[in-house]
Every structure is written in C-alpha cells, then in structure tokens.
C-alpha cells in the first residue's frame, strides 16, 4: 500500500513519485535504459541548434586541475553544445542580452543537453517564464559511464563551454547566468570555484542558479537522523545508498576520500576535514524542495554560502516539492511558484 507522504499530494502524484523513484534506482545501477540511442558528447545532432565546442586551451588549465585529470586520464575534448531555441544559434548575442548557460542533471551518468530531452525542460521553462533571459546554451558534457570520463572530465567540458561563450563569442560574463540542476548544480559550483580560484581569461559569471543541487557526493549526509533517510517515500531520488554505483563511477580513482573533503566534489560535506569558503562567488539563487532527499545538504550549502555572500544569496524552498520538481508539469503548484521566483530574481 502506498501512503501519501504529503497531505497536499494527490494519489496520482504519489504514485508517479514512487514509480519514478524505482526508475531512478534502476538506471543508477544500469545506466540509461532508453530503447534508442540518446545524444551524447560523441556527435552533434543536426538541425538542433547545435555547434561544436573546441577543447579548453591548455593555457586555461591549472596545475591542480591537470593533476586531478591525470588520475583518471581525462583530457579536454571537442564536444557539442546546443542553443535554445535552436534559431538563436544563427544570431549574434548583443551586449546586455542575458544568456543562460545550462548544465543538465542526471547524476553524471545519464541525461543530455539536446533540446528534445527531458532535461531541456528546465532551460526552456526558464526562458518562457523570464522575459529578461532571451536564450540558453547547454553543453553536452561527458557522462562518467567510462573510466576516463570520471571527475574532472565534466568540469573540463563545462569550462570549455564557458570559454566558448566568453572568449570565442565574446559574450560578457556580466551577461551570463550559469544554471544547473541536481548534478548540474554540483557542476556549476565546481566551475565557479575554479573560475574564482584561478587567474585565467575567464572571469566569473554574473550569477548562479542552482536547482536542487547535489552538493554532497560523499556519505556524510547518509548517517544522520536529519538526513535524507527521513524522506525516502516523499521523493523519487532513491534511498541514500541507491546511487552509490553512480557515485563510484563519477569519483573514479579519486575514491570516497575525495568525495568527503574535496570542495570541487562535495561543497556541502559534513566531514570536518573539508575546508571551504565561497568568497568571490557571484550572486546566487538556490531553489530546493522540502520533500527532497537532498534537502539537508542543500540547506547546509545555503548556510555556508550565506556566510560569504550575505544578501547576494537568495533561497526558495517549496514545502511539497520533490527533487528537481521544475522538470515535471505535475509537480504543481511548486513548479510554477519556483519559476515565478526565478523570474523575479532575473529581472532585478
């Protein structure tokens, strides 16, 4: 028997969450189970607003990032990126025009930047709700389904996409909002930390939009009474250890130790060995769901960012919202409420 974890939820919503939870649990172990081949970093899908993005120049790669990449064998590669709407790939971005740089979720093991995908619902919905943001660019970063795509391959790709926008298209960083959901939110934080920590030709963007960010890839939030174990039936994210296979694939040779204390990987780790700050980060808006398993770690991230950002940090939590609820039209009224908050934030 399925019970409603939130009194405000309908029976159909409760059933959908539980079915989706089983699907996420299965794909976290098996990888994508789609009967057709999903778009990936290996090829550009024609007639979709796509462009090839060249590898990040070696001059933009720090010694620290080179060392991290050497462990897994990750190197910068040529990858696709997609403009949303597709027609916007044909016109130049004017100065002052806000561009959303979108990094999709999917646990680093599934998902795609292609405009026809479920993940593209998020940038498309933001564009529809926010008149001040005119177009989005989504990078097809590598998924950690093979050894050499483990951390920091996705970070290298996110940097390549940002370099493309700033140094190839000459879009001012002050006109770029970097957005990411779930694992994409984790990647946004890693990208920004790199930009803040390294003197390169890549200034930080104007702002960050983090949607249900996955900010502890370690195990520090899996052992507390206030952890995600209390929300197992209210979210479609699986039980705490249900994505361990995906975590291992992403971590690769870096292992669980890095997941506990590396600020690029787990900025909301509760491990006392983690040393972290958010000085230099741009204005940030965090959107979370009160019913999602990641809520405790997202709230800790909020508190840590608040110390350094002060009033530049904005936070919205929808009480009945599951993980990444903007993805799904049936997650109402939380979805519309969040998009309204985002529209207000982008207009200021």
UniProtKB/TrEMBL annotation:
What Gene Ontology terms describe what this protein does at the molecular function level?
hydrolase activity
**All residue ranges annotated as the Alpha/beta hydrolase fold-3 domain in the record:** 102-326
Domain of life according to the entry: Eukaryota
Q: Does the keyword Isomerase apply?
A: no
**Which keywords has UniProt assigned to this entry?**
Hydrolase
Looking up InterPro entries in the UniProt record yields: AB_hydrolase_3, AB_hydrolase_fold, GDXG_lipolytic_enzyme
Q: Per its record, how is this protein called by name?
A: Alpha/Beta hydrolase protein
The species this protein belongs to is Armillaria borealis
């Amino acid at each position: 028997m399925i019970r409603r974890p939130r009194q405000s939820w309908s029976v159909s919503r409760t059933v959908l969450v539980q079915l989706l939870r089983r699907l996420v649990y299965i794909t976290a172990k098996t990888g994508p189970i789609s009967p057709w081949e999903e778009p990936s970093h290996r090829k550009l899908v024609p007639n979709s607003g796509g462009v090839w993005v060249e590898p990040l120049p070696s001059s933009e790669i720090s010694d620290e990032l080179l060392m991290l990449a050497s462990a897994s064998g990750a190197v910068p590669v040529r990858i696709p990126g997609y403009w949303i709407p597709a027609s916007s790939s044909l016109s130049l971005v004017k100065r002052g025009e806000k561009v959303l740089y979108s990094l999709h979720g999917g646990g680093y093991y599934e998902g795609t930047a292609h405009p026809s995908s479920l993940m593209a619902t998020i940038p498309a919905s933001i564009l529809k709700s926010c008149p001040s943001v005119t177009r989005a660019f989504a990078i097809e970063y590598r998924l950690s389904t093979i050894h050499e795509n483990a951390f920091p391959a996705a970070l290298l790709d996110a940097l390549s996409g940002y370099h493309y926008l700033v140094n190839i298209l000459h879009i001012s960083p002050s006109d770029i909002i970097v957005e990411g959901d779930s694992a994409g939110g984790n990647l946004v934080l890693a990208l920004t930390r790199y930009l803040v920590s390294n003197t390169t030709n890549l200034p930080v963007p104007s702002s960050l939009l983090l949607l249900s960010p996955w900010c502890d890839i370690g195990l520090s939030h899996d052992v507390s009474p206030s952890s995600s174990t209390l929300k197992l039936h209210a979210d479609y994210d699986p039980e705490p250890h249900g994505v361990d296979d995906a975590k291992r694939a992403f971590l690769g040779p870096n292992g669980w130790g890095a997941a506990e204390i590396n600020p690029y990987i787990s900025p909301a780790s509760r491990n006392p060995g983690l040393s972290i700050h958010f000085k230099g980060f741009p204005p940030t808006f965090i959107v979370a769901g009160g019913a999602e398993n990641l809520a405790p770690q997202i709230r800790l991230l909020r508190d840590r960012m608040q110390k350094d950002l002060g009033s530049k940090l904005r936070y919205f939590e929808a009480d009945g919202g599951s993980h990444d609820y903007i993805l799904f039209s049936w997650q109402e009224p939380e979805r519309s409420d969040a998009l309204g908050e985002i529209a207000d934030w982008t207009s200021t």
